[in-house]
Design brief:
The protein contains 15 helices and 17 strands. With 394 residues, the protein is of the alpha/beta class. The chain is elongated, with a radius of gyration of 23 Å. The model has no long low-confidence stretch (mean pLDDT 94).
């Protein structure tokens, strides 16, 4: 077990808090502060313990070069609005003399936000100099950026090896939620997989076959499975290099008595922009010039039976091109069906499907919505997350 923030006395201690404030910004204004809101419980706890908090985060991909477009200054301004009774300072540098001086001058219950970590080349390189510079700012390290936990960067991996460390509340919730569904899921356990690329899900599917009872497959990736068993997919997206893999997975599932449920009908069109020409076709009737862009009503009904009975659900990847009105019904229906199942533990991971659940307004009805797409997939692959593995043990 890794240490949590409840395992330390933070009074008058300088705490380096690694967060994920990689938020969307348009014309200097934050357009969604969901990630910042998710961080507030950890920040407020540390403030209540009279810690001196030094917050660090990345934003975008500036590739180790300072770039005004990726400055955390708008995040600083918004953080002051979220915590109006707290003194918050902004350091225009990430590390160096100024950062050290500002960190040393912090009083109990005050916050310093450092400039974008990725303005420094040493961050993504996990350089010894960057690790030493960040570590010198604080007494204790708190890691609360789950979305970066699969990366060995200076602020995620390097610092944790130098300072006494702990999981923040957000990371603790993520780890506990995935532990629950992977180590001791209540049965039936249903995995719902979608999205376009099957290559991203290969290790997830392999690992899940030893844990789940049923796998529902939608999105663009389903067509490779369907073609592997000689289904007619028209002009739909297929990864021909993965046909053998899909065939083997279906065989393995049959041998293990695991159900793999594939769509039986689709909303099809010539391309994603041709919403007016969209029509519903059964699997074996898709015209050669049309592609499946969403699961159809019969498939939704088929999926409903399994979602309704499930006691544990993991969902990754949308069922169709949900950004388009004509092709969003499958994703929306699956979200609604999971939301209605009040007796199941439901975990959703992966950027696209998280955005969809939030857009449709069902986020309150899920047991856990993961803040890290790549990190959540690594956990579902049964792999260790480097930034969490190096945190201090209890």
């Amino acid at each position: 077990m890794k240490k949590t923030i409840y395992d330390y006395n933070f009074a008058s201690k300088k705490v380096l808090l690694r967060v994920d404030f990689n938020v969307p910004i348009n014309n200097g204004r934050i357009t969604s502060d969901v990630r910042m809101q998710a961080e507030l419980p950890t920040i407020k706890y540390l403030l209540s313990q009279q810690a001196k908090i030094i917050i660090c985060s990345h934003l975008g991909r500036p590739d180790g070069i300072p770039n005004k477009k990726y400055s955390l200054k708008p995040v600083f301004e918004h953080l002051k609005e979220l915590l109006p009774n707290t003194k918050i300072y902004f350091c225009p540098e990430t590390v160096g003399e100024n950062a050290k001086k500002m960190a040393d001058n912090l009083k109990d219950g005050e916050i310093l936000l450092l400039e974008n970590l990725r303005f420094e080349k040493g961050e993504e390189e996990n350089s010894e100099e960057m690790v030493a510079a960040l570590s010198s700012l604080a007494d204790i390290f708190v890691f609360d950026a789950f979305g970066t936990s699969h990366r060995k960067h200076a602020s995620t991996y390097g610092v944790a090896k130098k300072l006494p460390s702990a999981m923040g509340l957000l990371v603790q919730k993520e780890v506990e939620s995935f532990d629950k569904i992977l180590a001791s899921p209540e049965k039936p356990f249903v995995a719902i997989l979608g999205g376009a690329k099957i290559s991203d899900k290969i290790d997830v599917i392999k690992n899940l076959l030893s844990k789940v009872d049923t796998v529902l497959i939608g999105g663009g990736m389903c067509f490779t499975f369907l073609k592997a068993i000689k289904g007619n997919v028209g002009a739909s997206l297929v990864d021909d290099e993965k046909l053998d893999f899909c065939y083997d997975i279906i065989k393995t599932a049959i041998n293990k008595k695991i159900k793999i449920i594939l769509p039986v009908d689709f909303v099809c069109s010539e391309n994603i922009y041709d919403e007016k020409g969209a029509e519903i076709y059964k699997l074996d009737k898709i015209p050669d010039d049309k592609m499946g862009l969403d699961i159809g009503p019969k498939t939704i009904k088929l999926f409903k039976k399994h979602i309704k009975k499930a006691r544990t659900i993991f969902w990754n990847g949308p069922m169709g091109v949900y950004e388009k009105d004509m092709f969003k019904n499958g994703t929306k229906s699956v979200a609604e069906l999971i939301a209605k199942n009040k007796r199941c533990t439901s975990v959703v991971g992966g950027g696209d499907v998280v955005s969809a659940v939030e857009e449709f307004g069902f986020e309150e009805n899920f047991s856990h919505i993961s803040t890290g797409g790549g990190a959540s997939l690594k956990l579902m692959e049964g792999k260790e997350l480097p930034a969490i593995s190096v945190l201090s043990d209890k």
